[in-house]
Amino acid sequence: MDWVTGLSSRCDKSYNEFLVIVERFSKTQIFLLCHKDVTAIDIALLIWNIVVSWTVIFTNIISDRDYKFTSALLTNLQNLFGTKLSFSTAYHPQTGGLSERMIQNLEYMGRKFC
């Protein structure tokens, strides 16, 4: 999971961030529009309502150490799902390479179409 911030002002102004989720084995990509002031509760609801209802529950999620991902609520939610939440380490970009490439594609599409 990762964030795309700073969306173009030409796009819908009610949303200014994307939550990017990439399933590593099938390369399934999920882009969720969010507000900049989204909370851990909002993220938990997004994951439950959108991701879990579309797919099976992931066994391992790799994320950066954003405070929204390290909150007690999301940690408890991951424990409830039986999901292992792994965090990437600074200066080891290979852990997030797949999501970073998807973010580059998303930003390219945003520049072309927004």
UniProtKB/TrEMBL annotation:
SUPFAM superfamilies: Ribonuclease H-like. The keyword Transmembrane applies. Residues 1-114 form the Integrase catalytic domain. The chain crosses the membrane at residues 43-62. It comes from the Eukaryota. GO terms for molecular function: RNA binding. One of its GO terms (cellular component) is nucleus. The keyword Transmembrane helix applies. Keywords: Membrane, RNA-binding, Transmembrane, Transmembrane helix. InterPro entries: Integrase_cat-core (IPR001584), RNaseH-like_sf (IPR012337), RNaseH_sf (IPR036397). One of its GO terms (biological process) is DNA integration. PANTHER family: RNA-DIRECTED DNA POLYMERASE (PTHR35046:SF26), ZINC KNUCKLE (CCHC-TYPE) FAMILY PROTEIN (PTHR35046). This is Integrase catalytic domain-containing protein. It comes from Austropuccinia psidii MF-1.
